[in-house]
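User: quick one
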Amino acid sequence: MSDFAALWAEIAGVGRAPGGGYLRYALTPPELALRDWFRAQAGRRGMAVTEDGNGNLFAWCSEPWAGGTVLTGSHFDSVPHGGGFDGPLGIVSAFLALDRIGYHRKVGIGAFVEEEGGRFGVPCLGSRLLTGAIAPDRAAALRDRDGVTFGEALGAAPAGHLPQITRLSAFVELHIEQGRALTTPIGVASAIWPHGRWRMEFTGAGDHAGTTRMTDRRDPMLTFAHTVLAANAEARLIGAHATMGRVEAEPNATNAIPSLVRGWLDARAADTGTLDRLLEAVIKQATERAGRDGTELSVVAESVTAEVAFDTELARRLSALLGDAPILPTGAGHDAGVLSAHLPTAMLFVRNPTGVSHAPAEEAGVADCEAGVAALARVLEALT
Amino acid sequence: MSDFAALWAEIAGVGRAPGGGYLRYALTPPELALRDWFRAQAGRRGMAVTEDGNGNLFAWCSEPWAGGTVLTGSHFDSVPHGGGFDGPLGIVSAFLALDRIGYHRKVGIGAFVEEEGGRFGVPCLGSRLLTGAIAPDRAAALRDRDGVTFGEALGAAPAGHLPQITRLSAFVELHIEQGRALTTPIGVASAIWPHGRWRMEFTGAGDHAGTTRMTDRRDPMLTFAHTVLAANAEARLIGAHATMGRVEAEPNATNAIPSLVRGWLDARAADTGTLDRLLEAVIKQATERAGRDGTELSVVAESVTAEVAFDTELARRLSALLGDAPILPTGAGHDAGVLSAHLPTAMLFVRNPTGVSHAPAEEAGVADCEAGVAALARVLEALT
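Assistant: Done. Structure below.
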């Protein structure tokens, strides 16, 4: 068994649900078990482990936060029933890359908390806190589906901005590619599409499904359904991505017209202008339909991330180091996108043959994962 | 305070959720508390209480199940966040009606279990079991949202068919009206529309919301949304009622295309032919859209109830007794509909000024409720 396959097997069962997907929500037992594993791996290699008061964990070969250190790593948390590669691949590969180049370098490995936003709703929460992109009190008050706040799960008020992040010379995140654009084992990221998630609340009048005349109804499920179809159609027209994959109805009973339907819009586009036009078109259609249904609509931006262009020079350098690896953009958000505003940042992608991600079928081949370790080792060696 | 207001106040707080709606699922603590209250009320009046092994409770003035007994009563369970009148009004009114006419008559009061189907999915489960309309092993295996079976909640295998039901001379259920059709305090039911609930499962391919090209998607939320709008449009065209008020998505994450969306169709019409045509039209539209979306559709009938015409002679007699009370049909299902196949059955409706039901705003005025008690007393007196 390769060193990759052996180390990967140590975590492959953690948080795996029937059906093959993972339930590794931030700060729940499976993700806490992965953090313990992280500490143990660091310990085996004589690396010091620090926490930043925001839920992010770091292992260091050298002095924590020393000037000129290159940070690598990724996250452990998953979307509900997501794949096992999205996040953990970058952390496992980081330890293995250090095994190849030795531990005498200025290198740190980060495990960022709540990258997916799968528990508290705001993606990249750990890196946003660390860089001051979200106020600690706002983050502390975010609630999961059971009403537990991020502050409660963390056990303390988040520490917020750590100025020492800018002392680092670079952040390099290795990640499984999440589309089908990469046809070689390894690629380098050019940019992350601007993207965001918007919570849309459709309010109507709860009533009896059997006895309420169709003309007397104010059914918010209709407005939601129209908005789902409008978001899809507008995204196709405009060349963007729109998804409404999460929905909650109240009271959610078969024989009751709902009083409230909540739907989340995930929208992404190659540039901010296109994303803005998409959002505007979807809200316009939803509002018009609400007028016809006698319902009301409110829209809250839960998180909006501007376009991220990674450091062009660094991307070119890494591509050259890796035998002219292709440079490509992605529609997926990453902690690297948040950190890129504060220090030179790059991403390495490992090929994903089916392109599936955020689902149990997400998979990278072992040979490609080993190529990823070798590539990351090469990059860390060159940058330190 | 009237006797009605005083007795009503005893149960008004049981299972009341913030927001004013009720969470009185069958065999959960609030509904069990109402059963204890039922036993106490029967005890105060010297009535014997029996259970039928199916979860239905009975209080008897005379020998249980004696030939010629008139049964009245209703149910305690609610839809999630439903109103407080739907069900309990018929039980409270029954005790008060007996207070007026005395306890020397052949009268029983029933409290049927799981009338709404809000916990285990099949409405009128108690009366279906009692009359043999559902097999005890099928009922026992029905699961609630937490995976608990009806058999487990009941604590035993259901007893099933009780032949003695046909010894009774009549069943009369008093119930709040659930539409705006009744403009006098009291009405008499003529019929229940044929109706049913169908679980529709839309299966697609779970994937990443950010990176999956629109043309590569097989998103079941689109097929669900189209079906919601189709059900509404077809019901309006055909003069029927259709509602999709309950939905579940998997994994239900903002940044994931769902792999599965489950939606429930509640459909009702004045006659079986219309209901059949409605269902056929909705499934046709859903199937066509699934073809375009690359998704798959399966439909399971969770319960289908044929048209119920109540005993015409009995309805006319009650209407005459009550000063020519109006005789009207309803789109709502009731235990009386199930029992009507086995013994002469009638329903009394109490006016509902707003017509709202299955929602916190459901309300009948105290004077109308008192008129309901007087009407039920008059009817029980005349029939025994």
